Amino acid sequence: MIRSGELKPEEHLSTQGLADKFGVSRSPVREAMQVLFEQGLLEQKLNRGFFVSATVTIEENDAHDDQLPETMSDYHRLSEDWLTDRIPADVTEQMLRERYDLTKAQLNDILVRATREGWAERKQGYGWRLLPVAKTAEAFEQIYRFRMLIEPAAMLEPTFALDRKIIEEQRRIQERMLATDIRNLPAERQLYNGSLFHEELIKMSCNPFFHISLVRVNRMRRLLEYRSNVDRDRLHGQCQEHLAILALLEKGEIIEASYAMRRHLDGALSRKSPLQWSQGVAANRRVELVK
């Protein structure tokens, strides 16, 4: 966020706000702040907390992007093992700590995040159960079909009201994605920005149940999307479609924006659905057999 300019020089960092944003407890956020402080990216002010260093520039940090290692976090190791059936559905904390060499606090943060994203739950009495809610290609497609129902409909709610601050902020993010961020940001952050766009727009329905539902299914689908290689060329088209929807909303063309949102989600499903990929592969194989 600092490298991309999302966090500005001298901006104050909220520990709780960042913990909520990334779905973790405050402990790893404080540890990350300390690391960034030691690297000179943050400044610590007495009784006031951490601030982005006044000397940080976007260009300086972008120049070091190629030095950042691509590592798989413990959270992603666990989710990958669950997706590929290398661990059972019923697990214990002791088993997970030994398998991934984690402390109690580290494992707790991972399980809290998995619970928030909808694919883990604590069993009654002892242990944890990993849930297949977004593990299959069918579930991934069902999530998108659910979104195709609620997101366009939310714009047509009688309580729908444009929020200029949301429009302006999302335009800024999408334009910055097109200008630099698609090349520079990690894949996980790209996915986050995409989810944020849809979650912020559905807030304008002023119906909290639309927003709660979308946040929940977005968390679920991340389990599968974390595994995919982000197509940065496709993201250009996605950002342009986002900007087109914002333009329609700003002009007050709400019905047209609703149709555009449905087309956008339908196109995303056809491009990203693992189910359609597998069907396409099967169809190609049948063609080859006929030949």
From TrEMBL:
Annotated GO MF terms: DNA binding; DNA-binding transcription factor activity
Gene3D superfamilies tied to this protein: GntR ligand-binding domain-like, Winged helix-like DNA-binding domain superfamily/Winged helix DNA-binding domain
Record keyword Transcription present: yes
SUPFAM superfamilies: GntR ligand-binding domain-like, Winged helix' DNA-binding domain
Domain of life: Bacteria
Entry keyword set: DNA-binding, Transcription, Transcription regulation
Keyword Plastid assigned: no
HTH gntR-type domain boundaries: 1-55
Name used for this protein in its record: DNA-binding GntR family transcriptional regulator
Source species: Rhizobium paranaense
